Amino acid sequence: MISLEILDVKSCMSHLLLKDTFHAFYFIEGDIATFNTFHIDGQLHKDFFDTAEAAERLQNRKFSYWKEIQEFCYSLIKGKRTPLGMKLIFSLSDANTEKFLTQNGLAFDSHTVNGLYLNFKYDGTALKCITGVSLSTFTLDKSLEYAWDEMVRRFFRQKEITVKDAVGYE
After folding, report:
1. In this predicted structure, what is the pLDDT of residue 19?
2. 1: which DSSP letter?
């Protein structure tokens, strides 16, 4: 796990709220504080969908993709004032988790990886991203965590999101 301070908050917020940068990630949950605090749970409710086709299309997913929630979150924030705070939690999709494990030669079964997470936290002035890894089994092997942290750094560099290691975790 690493804590990264986002140096250009405005640019990163544009990537989060306006661009497709994080569209392929699952949206786990979020909190947005403006005139109220809005909590959004990214877990899909499959019984909501009335057609068999929609339910079938969603059957392999537990969470929404960010691209399905992004516009709604933006609608809560847009305006003259910045939010008082915001927390967004993303996870690499199941398909991309499998690709990630293969590409990095990691000997982890994708079914034991609960999530490879990006936790964005905005406090009204500063924006941080904290990485995280969740496994359903115990291991002393940190290779997955190290590979995920390095991949996140590369991803941010590729998207020209400037970061520096933050001093402490929150």
Report:
1. 95
2. -
